User: What shape does this take?
Amino acid sequence: MFKIVHLFISAMVVICFTACNLEKARPNKHQYLIIASDCLYTKDTLLFKSFKKREEIKVRILHISADSILKKIKTEGVNCEIDAVILSSVYDMNNLGKANVLQVIPKENFPVELPNKHISQSRTWAGIGIDPYVLFTKDDTLQKIKTYRNLLKGSKWCSNLSKETNWYPFYSFIVKKIGPKSKFNAKNWITQFENNKQNNLSFSDSIGPCKIYLTAFSRYRADKSNRNSVYKKGKLVFPNQHIGGSYYNMVCFGIVKQAPNFTNGIKFFHYILLKSVNDRLNNALNQFPINSDEASVYAYQQNYRFKKYHTSPVQLVTYYERLKTILGSLD
Assistant: This one.
């Protein structure tokens, strides 16, 4: 009898111990979405707190450069925990697309709020915000400088933009003008443009002899520390308002191939294209929402009314190889 009782007690102990370990081994009930970004930081998860409440999905942000994101995805492969990517430039997102590390998103999964022209040809990524190329000029140059072409001759100009990530989206608008019957010479345009640029000056410098700055609107708006001194006596200009519209870059979104949380990524994609959310996100990025012609609760998005070029920079990535040849010949 004693042995039977002993065996019973031992069995109960084993069952309880096993049950406790099974409890610990249960899968995590919380849903996550891990986003890698070169323009968002950990603190920016607050922008998406309503997403967590609405979908019960917690967003995590990994701040990392575009090049490092690509390296991480390629190195870690299927073990990479990154679900989605938000990058500040069409150029860098196109590089990820060409590297075949982004997931094709079925047509039916694209938000209806997103214009087709902002969707990549491969349907692996899309633009979600607008960052115009603007000019800041001294008052005495204001009447002369109304277009990008005005920078080819006359007054010297400066810029705080650098690297391919900024200039490829800009110059792609120029290369687009080359057509079968066109006499336009993109190489001559870019050569004159570059020759009239004053190097080694930026918005952190005193304006001095340089009266014209070309920059991205996000750079202009984010540079609050220098605004009182550098921007005090000048004016912001959105070029080409009477001849096609201002050129622009875009912040972009894509889902990583074999993302652990692909479905969560699709839900998030729809979420950030909601009007109120897209306004809020682009306000944090100092840019304009995807539907910038509509009313916004953010004053600058409402007050700065400008005409955008009808073609999206997302559509112009097909000109990058031709542009690469032109820029290479200038070295």
